[in-house]
Amino acid sequence: MEQGVNKVVSFGIGAFESARTSAESLLKNLEVEINALIASGESVQSENAVKVRSAVTNASAKISTLVDQAKAQYTDLSAKAQKAIADLQAKASELAAKLPGSKQEAA
Fold it and tell me: What is the pLDDT of residues 40-91, one digit of tens each?
């Protein structure tokens, strides 16, 4: 019985190692293929390829600019909103103090 259990455990370990080795090999081959495709694409200097690269670069720059502008506007709006809330809270406290029966009026 003990030998049977050991064989099953050894089988499981062997299967796991085989799968791990295969996965590592597949990942390495995939990385090589991806790098080859990148190198191939970088070497293409046709008119269309240059236009596509230029368009992507321009679009990326515009998106970065829009993101920066959105962040600046959010920061500005957030600061204004916080000030408005603080002003409203101060005004509400001021009005509450003037109401009949308020603690401050009684003092």
Answer: 999 999 999 999 999 999 999 999 999 999 999 999 999 999 999 999 999 9
**Cα–Cα distance between 50 and 58 in angstroms, integer?**
12
List Cα–Cα distances, 41 to 10, 29, 50, 64, 88, in angstroms.
46, 18, 11, 25, 59
HSE-CB of 21 using CA atoms within 13 angstroms: 6
Specify burial of residue 84 (Cβ count, 10 A radius: 0-12, 13-18, 19+): exposed
- From the list 84, 105, 79, the residue with the least C-alpha distance to 94 is 105
